[in-house]
Amino acid sequence: IGCNMRLLLGFVLSTFWLWEASLSRVYTNHWAVRIPGGPSEADNLASKYGFTNLGQIGGLEHHYHFHHSRVVRRSTFVTRGTHSFIHMDPKVDWAQQQLVKTRVKRHARSDPSYIHLNDPKWSNMWYIHCSDKNSRCRSEMNILAAWQRGYTGRNVVVTILDDGIERNHPDLVQNYDQLASYDVNGNDYDPTPRYDFSNENKHGTRCAGEVAAVANNSHCIVGIAYNARIGGVRMLDGDVTDVVEAKSLGIRPDYIDIYSASWGPDDDGKTVDGPGPLAKQAFELGIKKGRKGLGSIFVWASGNGGRQGDHCSCDGYTNSIYTISVSSTTENGNKPWYLEVCSSTLATTYSSGEFYDRKIVTTDLRQRCTEGHTGTSVSAPMVAGVIALALEANPLISWRDVQHLLVKTSRQAHLKANDWKTNAAGHKVSHLYGFGLVDAEAMVVEAKKWRTVPPQHTCTDQKLNASISSSGCRDQPDQQVVFLEHVVVRVLIVHPRRGDLEISLVSPSGTRSQLLAQRLFDNSNEGFRNWEFMTVHCWGERAEGTWTLEISDSPSQLRNPEVLVSWLSYFTVDLDGQFSHIFYTDFFFCLFGIVCVHVLASTMLLC
Ligand SMILES: *[C@@H]1O[C@H](CO)[C@@H](O)[C@H](O)[C@H]1NC(C)=O
Ligand SMILES: *[C@@H]1O[C@H](CO)[C@@H](O)[C@H](O)[C@H]1NC(C)=O
Ligand SMILES: [Ca+2]
Ligand SMILES: [Ca+2]
Ligand SMILES: [Ca+2]
Ligand SMILES: [Ca+2]
Description:
Oligomer: single chain
Helix content: 10-25%
Shape: elongated
Number of domains: 3
Strand content: 15-25%
Radius of gyration: 32 Å
Number of strands: 26
Bound molecules: 2-acetamido-2-deoxy-beta-D-glucopyranose, calcium ion
CATH architecture of the largest domain: 3-Layer(aba) Sandwich
CATH topology of the largest domain: Rossmann fold
Distance between the termini: 83 Å
CATH class of the largest domain: Alpha Beta
Largest sheet: 7 strands, parallel
């Protein structure tokens, strides 16, 4: 019955209408009664009409709560009887039989916990959904809500750069994509892992399932982008060289949308290493030419060297502006033992923590399923899956748009860190978690309406010294920068013990990024030779003003004491940037500070 029809019926058959209206109401055996004559009068009136007086209604003077036990408890019609004469008693101002009202809990976001999928590990996927079996759940990443908006990764292609992928795994085979796969180690088109006794090469298969395991197929789990196509590039099971990396990063850039990598240099707390010349070019080619010019999306795990005091700024892959560097948090929002701190981390997902914290369930080698996937290795594929949902919502977003979306939508949520700060553009950011926990629903919603950012500008100034005044490319319109994205600081530092150095950058707006923390195990005397530190903490801030680079040196006992004597313990570099007119661009600057150890403290050679 349509609305007009119902109205018409209402006029014609008013009794029918009344009946229908009362159907939708549920009357209770409770009354609210207003009696000005005081509590004892209320008691008298209650007993006169057969009610029990349950007393004043909260703080409402003269209002009493009456209960009638002989009235049907939940009725769909107004009950008549002696009790109803209370409405006409002159001592009663007003009386109302109470109706049941529909009240819906106002969750901040929909909590569609009723979805049931027949995948046997579905109820263990605590980081995706809440269900009866899953009481301690964490639905803050809003993956279910993104699905409910209709995004499941359709037509998006993801590949896992790792030790191979079990392409015939029953939970992957349906989404497996031959064209998104290659075996760089074996030089063939079949990335099936090499099986050994220890199942050493299980990593890629585990990561693949997180992204695109098939949903509701009675097998194992449900991938975050369960309708995406998934491939694997086998490249870690052999000698990894610059060539191997460059090949892997450049496989079918027009076909593959997202490359997920959960590997990098040793997380031993003493290595400083990054992409070689070929891998660097592969990254640059990917972001320029990949996805038909929109740019390949490279997602990177920030590293597992937390226990070794490693700092992800010493990993040139996560530190690169071309990679989306992802961190991890435990189910309770605590810092996991393996977490590496640094200013280039963009966003975070749930992962494992202590032994009592839950881990991640996913597909495993030999057609199995595991509940034991851990570390930041978990987080890169999760974000790859979330980005796949966003790319389905808007396939035309660029590699930089994706980073903007993550900056905008990731949230502090309940993630604990003592360094959360709000930068001058209003973004909350931390060295542990970047902009916070990813939010899949917000990603798809924002992606859908996102207007692509203007071209990237890069302003490089090498005429810098200890007190830096930079023209900021004012005279070069195609390089001018107003609003910041990444800030890269390139340094050349000669130092007797690299692990003693701590470097921070303070933006004109006052946002402090720690570019490097001390590393206990880093005894190297190689210093930093044109190493690029990167921070995203100034994202959206204005570029112009004074940039201060602070380098502090805390000589440890491990250092040669003879060198110590003449060491410069602290210096500051001011950088002035004057930039104008262009929206959303990148700002590079370089500091060439050769600090010569064998010279006196006050002497610095700058070039
Ligand atoms: C999953 O599959 C079952 C049949 O095995 C079906 O009844 C159910 O509706 C499906 N669930 C979803 C969410 O599609
Ligand atoms: C550094 O640059 C500033 C301004 O460009 C200049 O005044 C200063 O003398 C320079 N300092 C050194 C040590 O060259
Ligand atoms: Ca092969
Ligand atoms: Ca499944
Ligand atoms: Ca590391
Ligand atoms: Ca990065």
